[in-house]
Amino acid sequence: MATLKKKVSEAKAFVLHSISWSDNSLIVNVFSREYGLIAGVAKSAKRPYSVLRPINAHFQPLLVSWSGSGELKTITKVETDGFYCIPERALMSAWYLNELILRGVAKEDPHEKLFDCYEDALLGLVSDTDPRIVLRRFEWQWLCEIGYGLDSAEPDFYDLKKEPELRNELRLNISKALNRSTLNVRENLNHLSKLIATRSHTEDT
Q: Nearest 5°: phi and psi at 42?
């Protein structure tokens, strides 16, 4: 684990999760390239002219500054470092990537390679690459980074005929890595699929 500085300036990062705190502030989980997962308070970030306003955006490359040596940092400055336009149909896939990192990576433990893989995955979703290719590749990389990699050569992620078999194999290892707990995104997706199926059946009858 890296020794964390009391002040960090312009760290390359993405916001993975945020919740409201008081009327205008946020508590955020930020995935930074050099410092790993960081939790912080972004005071008044929801105000229209706040210098922390960019912290409201998920899936966007940011330069984040913070201070503090405790578990919860104080976000002091946020700047945009580009713009990614994730298609609406790919948002669930993007949230899935975020949850894998949040659930599988320890706080304040740098994973520079995984950060780069995450950024590449977002760019894949932006470029309209088949989400199955993007997700299987990232799942493979995520498992390797946290010590649950498969004992086999890296597959051809573009071979979609073999994708179902690969998906099942990867999901089995992901389940082991997460102590067989279910990911929230997957639960929500299953629930949504059931709602759509029920609605379609109702409309047909």
A: -110, 95
From 82, 117, 141, give the residue that closes a domain. Answer: 82
Taking the C-alpha atoms of residue 134 and residue 126, their distance in angstroms, rounded to an integer, is 11
What's the CA gap between 156 and 161, in Å, rounded?
10
Structure tokens at 118: 């995450």
Q: Please tell me the distance from the alpha carbon of residue 11 to that of residue 22, in angstroms, as a whole number.
A: 26
Structure tokens given for 60: 């966007």
Tell me the CB-side half-sphere exposure of residue 136, using CA atoms within 13 A. 20
User: Among residues 179, 167, 34, which one has the least CA distance to residue 104?
Assistant: 179
Hey, is 26 helix, strand or coil? strand
User: Residue 67 phi/psi, 5° resolution?
Assistant: -135, 160
CA torsion, points 89, 12, 62, 43, in degrees to nearest 10?
A: 120
93 plus 21 within the same structural domain: no
pLDDT-based confidence at residue 184 (cuts at 50, 70, 90): low
Q: Does residue 129 form part of some domain? A: yes
Give the span between the Cα atoms of 183 and 170, in whole angstroms. Answer: 14
Model's pTM, two decimal places?
0.85
Same structural domain, 50 and 96: no
For the segment 135-158, the average pLDDT, to the nearest whole number, is 92
Distances (CA, A) of 65 to 41, 52, 136, 151, 175: 12, 10, 32, 39, 34
Mode of pairing for the β-strands spanning 72-80 and 36-42: parallel
